[in-house]
Amino acid sequence: MDTEILARIQFAFTIAFHYIYPPLSIGIGLIMVIMEGLYLKTGKKAYEVLTRFWLKIFAITFGIGVATGIIMEFEFGTNWAVYSKYVGDIFGSALAAEGLFAFGLESTFLGILIFGWNRVSPKVHFISTIGVFFGSMFSAVWIVVANSWQQTPAGYHIVGEGLSARAEVTDFWAMVFNPSSVDRIIHTWQGAFLAGAFLVLSVHAYYILKGRYVEISKKAFKIALAVATVVSFTQLLSGHSSADGVAVNQPAKLAAMEGHYDKSAPADLYAFGWVDDENQKVTGLGIPGGLSFLVHQDFNAPITGLNAFPEDERPGQVNAVFQFYHIMISIGLFLIALTFYASFLWWRGKLFETKWLMKIFAFSVILPQIANQVGWFAAEMGRQPWIVYGHLRTSEGFSQEVSSNQIVFSLVLFTVVYTLLLILFLYSLNKKIKNGPYDEAKNELEII
Amino acid sequence: METFLGIDYPTLWYLVVGLLFSGYAILEGFDYGAGAWHLFLKKDLSRRIAINAIGPIWDANQVWLIIGGGALFAGFPVMYATMLSAMYIPFMLFLILLVLRSSAIKFRSAEEMLWWRKTWDIIYFVSNTLIAFLLGVVLGNVLQGFEIGPNFTYQGGIFFSFLSPYAIMVGFTTLSIFMTQGAIFLLLKTEGRLYARITFLLKKGMIFFIISFSITSLYTLIFIPGVADNFKETPIFFVLPILAFLAVANVPRLVSKKKYSYALVFSSLTMAFLLMLVAFQLYPVLLPSTIHPEHSVTIYNAASSQKSLGIMLTIVLIGTPLLAGYFIFLYKTFYGKVKLDDTSY
Questions:
Q1: Which residues from B are below 8 Å from A114, CB to CB?
Q2: Where along chain B do its domains lie?
Q3: Interchain CB distance below 8 Å, B92 and A114
């Protein structure tokens, strides 16, 4: 295989693996802030026990997130040297800000968060929890800013030609608030909140079903359900706003997402389907003119299709983009239905008696994870063939001096180590869940 | 070209990057160094204490690597891209070892089984040792220069060419100074018999350092061309090696007086002076080309735009005091001997 494909596989693999963890950390972070805040406010032992329990799980997800994240920081240079030189001037300030403002905050306070229970006062500990949570949110901001700039470049000009061409900042704030940043930051944050909230929901639904730690689990479940209900709905809004932006800034990506080929015709909105790229046809269930309606509030409004772009300036994997995008949407809609129904039952006081629903929650942890992954896959594959939209091609961005043998070597290492890491993560997560938030031999009443 | 206090922006950024990597070498250096002694500690409890000595702070110390890497990418993208793609294999090994090392810290004491702990102990020891060694090897390569042609294209070997004898010597020197630092740090954190054992190990570490440092210095003077050029022009900087020597000579004295905090400061100073020596010796080159000096990567041809450097210098001016504040708070909170409790690794 050639170096470009290998470099792309390696990047996709390492970033997808990395992205299991940071969303969990951000999401659990939010839930922990609420739990510990309630503890300080009410003084109830139950909330302290819950905070300590989730902190243990947070520590693992955060740790693996950092370890796999450092790899990303250096992989730009090792495998994407031309790209790195091209975007360094732009990416640089975002990365520097991420490191100093966000990562510095989260990593220093993490030590106090995890090991400081017996060394600092509850208030200082709570402030550390907030510090770590804000730090992780802020990390996401700068990374998504950098990625959004690749999708919708702004506040720059191009200097030089050929191999020495590069983008330089002309307006820092225009670069930071490029057309897609804000939508995508909010969308990413909310995806992370859902990932964390559903892990909490899943674990406590499991306890409730097993009849263990029931009272404390109900408290935790309610917190996470409140977060999940609000966020799954607002996520729909931010998704819509984000798609509107794509329609304006990356029309080829939007066209690929719905498999829309006609140069200028009303476009359909599919619930599901299959794209036959050769015959430029989509087979599936959809609303005729639905995409036109979503973008222009008019079923007959024309939408720019893939054929309006030269063959080499539009995404190659149309069906993949279509499928990833639709899986994300379906999961998003399902999560809204699930959380709204659960909230309704909560209001009617029947939530925890509805066993089948608890069973769904116990397994639903996987859904936001899948949605986060496929959402990014749709966004990044939809950006192709560009690495910097409209300026630099992916095929021009990789390191020319790195051979395919070298990448095979590192890819094998990553596969082995990451497989081991995933097993360890699941094993220790499982063990922490089995051990539970407190010693069951003790009287539950003392804790609650 | 824009200046601040009479210094041009690329030079300022060179100082920033130098400062960040020095911070990394000094702070995370003693973490790696402590880990490189791991198998020299025999009892399970000793090993657990050694890991928990760095437990609350290693993540924070690692921030310096992340910010340093970001700063290099941001300020000197050409250097970042050229060095990492040319040193592909050592950097990939370094990154994988970092993952293994953090896994070892997190998972080692999570199970009681002897085989589990012993396996992680070995992984922990090997990864720390090799990380320290590889960092030195990369530094050695940078000092020696790369085979860089026109347009910063790397033309050298790709798999094992990074293991030159000189680079290996710098690797050992780095490992030895990290181990010295690590042992002093462990003395601050331990008590009783473990403490006695580390006092003994520290002596070995210092001998290891003095031997490898002497060989490397001689090697540098004899075989690396142009090394003393900058010094001939500005002889005042000859004070740096002298200061480095004085700082390291002070360490055994402070250790024998049991003033470990000061000993750690002085061994850190040694490292700082040596890194300044390297920085001064290279300036304004970042990566010398062994093919022709005009192909070398310098702070001027590798730098980001004036505008971008200006923005980043502002970010650094705001961010650094904040970061320093967090660090002081963190280190104060965890000052003193290791006490294992239910939150420990």
A1: 56, 343
A2: 7-228+289-333
A3: no
Q: Please give the residue range of the domain that contains residue A130.
A: 3-447
The model's confidence at residue B42, banded by pLDDT at 50, 70 and 90, is confident
Pick from A60, A67, A405: which is nearest to B99 by CB? A67
The pair of structure tokens assigned to B57 is 């702070």
- Token pair in block for residue B150: 């026109």
Residue A441's pLDDT is 64
Residues whose CB falls within 8 Å of the CB of residue A381, separated by 6 or more in sequence, listed in order: A315, A317, A320, A321, A324
Hey, of A17, A74, A110, A112, which one would you mutate to test binding to chain B, going by the most B CBs within 10 A of its CB?
A74
Residue type, B264: L
Looking at the 3D structure of chain A, how many domains does it have?
1
Cβ of B333: how many Cβ atoms within 10 Å? 18
- For B311, name the nearest residue in chain A, comparing CA atoms only: A93
Complex prediction ipTM: 0.85
Phi, psi (rounded to 5 degrees) for B112: -85, -25
Residue of chain A whose alpha carbon sits nearest to that of B87: A78
Amino acid found at B49: I
B21 to chain A, any CB pair closer than 8 A? The answer is no
Average pLDDT score over chain A: 89
Instruction: Give A298 to chain B, closest Cα distance, Å.
Output: 44
> A371-406: per-residue pLDDT in tens?
999 999 999 999 988 999 888 888 888 888 888 888
In degrees, rounded to 5, the angle at the alpha carbon of residue A147 between the alpha carbons of residues A143 and A148 is 115
Mean pLDDT on B35-62? 86
Q: Say if CB B128 and CB B179 are below 8 A apart.
A: no
User: How does pLDDT run across B233-258, given as a tens digit for each residue?
Assistant: 777 777 888 888 888 888 888 888 88
Q: What is the pLDDT of residue B260?
A: 85
Q: Which of B9, B31, B52, B88 best tests the A interface by mutation, with the highest count of A CBs <10 A?
A: B88
Name the minimum distance, in Å, from the CA of A41 to any CA of chain B.
24
Dmax (CA) of chain A: 73
Contacts of A406 (CB under 8 A, 6+ apart): B88, B89, B92, B158, B159
